[in-house]
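Next comes a concrete protein, fold included:
___
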Amino acid sequence: MNWNYPMRQYMKDHLPLYLFVSVLFVMGVVFGALMVNALSPGQKEEMARHINSFIQVVNQGDEIGGPSTFRDSLMLHLKWIALIWVLGLSIIGLPFIFLLDFLKGVLVGFSVGYLVGQLSWKGMLFAFVSIAPQNLIIIPALVICSVSACAFSLYIIKNRFLQKRGGPLYPMFVRYTSLALGMGSLLVGAALLEAYLSPVMIKWVTPMLAAAAG
């Protein structure tokens, strides 16, 4: 086992998995955006009420973000990574990893689709400042973790059950876990963006949103 195995080579060797997971995520985004059209008028009205309430809170100068947001956001992201890591340890975890990637896409697509549908280009601006910054880190981290989990699970299936070669599992496990921990450390940065950068940007755009809502 080559411990200096470069990340670029790793990504090249697992390119089909990266493409599959990325396409699955994009499909989730599209599905989530289409789900907005399936909402009933009452559901849309209820969600619009929550958005307008949030805009009013921000415009009144109330604090958003901060340590509590950072803590909650970080715990949520780390739980997502930990779940993917656990699923990668099981040979039956593959479909659930793919399901998580699809669901993440659905969440992003639904959030952006609703904001754009409700507020037009101003909704796109709001999505850009409130959703995009942290997801520029979260999405690649989840994709990398998912591919690593799938590769580890496939390695177990191939070497322990199909070929029964009994290849060295521990070095692969260490690399797999190290990669998950590395992506987890990146999510600290994503949580910081969500807790401290996004609120500042949101306060900048909410006057325009309040005008649109009015």
